[in-house]
Amino acid sequence: MFVPTWLLLAIGLSWLAAIAWAVQVARRRNPLPFPDPGSRIFSAASADAKGAVVELLARHGLHERFRADGPGVLRSILWDGTIINCSSPDIVARLGGAHACIGLVARDPVAAAEAAAGFLRARGFEASVVRDVEPGLPIAFVVSDALTGSVINFRPHLLRMPRPRPPGERGR
Fold first, then answer.
1. What is the pLDDT of residue 172?
2. Quick check: 151 pLDDT over 90?
3. DSSP labels for the chain?
């Protein structure tokens, strides 16, 4: 039975790619943007502190995947979905002084945030939706007294988020 060389090569490369992906997943570094479990967001006291925390986490196996800095927020996104931010005082003030966040994925972030705020209000908590904290990012925040020092945000799937701009284009 004759098997073409190109077919053997294609099968071999497919197996090699599958093994490489499995190794990355086992190391908690899924290179694919799915599943998107949302994120857990923590704030550092300063840009230097953020850098130190990101470096410390890397020493313990939580490595930075990429940065998505924006106006008013320095953001390091780690391979496990954890985000370390350093936010401007203006952004912290708009979020009621919150420094941490639970990020959830939603098809319609504003509708999901409104529903979450309604859910919390129905249970006796104060809750409001804050939009356009970072202009250009489709993220809606729920600020509530149900959480102390934290908020909940809703955002689209990672594939539907605007791409971070390269460092040379930031600030334009």
1. 43
2. yes
3. ----HHHHHHHHHHHHHHHHHHHHHHTT---SS-S---EEEEE-SSHHHHHHHHHHHHHTT--EEEE--BTTEEEEEETTSEEEEEE-HHHHHHTTT--EEEEEE-SSHHHHHHHHHHHHHHTT--EEEEE-SSTTS--EEEEETTSSSEEEEEE--GGGSPPPPPGGGTT-
